[in-house]
């Protein structure tokens, strides 16, 4: 059998369980949530189809828009502050300096000590 074909089969075989678990715990609940958004249902009893009423109610709610604004602020702060700081730290850690040794020690020492102390 060709080596490239063997690698491709291995990758597909390795990805299938991952995709099944991902679909089961992420994709399926998203689809069910969208589906149940079209119904008036309290979790027990009969579900009544109400169309887009739930979605219209959410879009008219001021708390939804405030929450969306707050989330966008958090995402923006993350992009504009965390990413540049992480890049600078990554650049500093790739060079052999006292800073690299200090950071590696301060990051890995608690991990090593906790595993040693726990037995």
TrEMBL record:
Transmembrane parts of this sequence: 12-35, 72-94
Cellular location(s): Cell membrane
Keywords recorded for this protein, A-Z: Cell membrane, Membrane, Transmembrane, Transmembrane helix, Transport
Source domain of life: Bacteria
Matching InterPro entries: ABC_transporter_permease (IPR051393), MetI-like_sf (IPR035906)
Membrane topology per record: Multi-pass membrane protein
A GO CC term assigned to this protein in UniProt: plasma membrane
Major location category of this protein: membrane
Entry keyword Transmembrane: yes
Name of this chain's protein: N-acetyl-D-glucosamine ABC transport system
High-level lineage: Bacteria, Bacillati, Bacillota, Bacilli, Bacillales
């Amino acid at each position: 059998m060709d080596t490239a074909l063997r690698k491709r089969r291995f990758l597909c075989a390795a990805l299938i369980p991952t995709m099944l678990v991902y679909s089961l715990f992420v994709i399926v609940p998203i689809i069910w949530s969208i589906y149940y958004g079209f119904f008036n249902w309290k979790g027990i009893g009969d579900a009544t189809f109400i169309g887009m009423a739930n979605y219209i109610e959410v879009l008219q709610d001021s708390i939804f828009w405030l929450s969306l604004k707050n989330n966008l602020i958090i995402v923006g702060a993350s992009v504009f502050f965390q990413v540049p700081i992480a890049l600078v730290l990554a650049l500093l850690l790739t060079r052999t300096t006292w800073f690299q040794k200090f950071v590696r020690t301060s990051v890995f020492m608690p991990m090593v000590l906790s595993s040693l102390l726990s037995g």
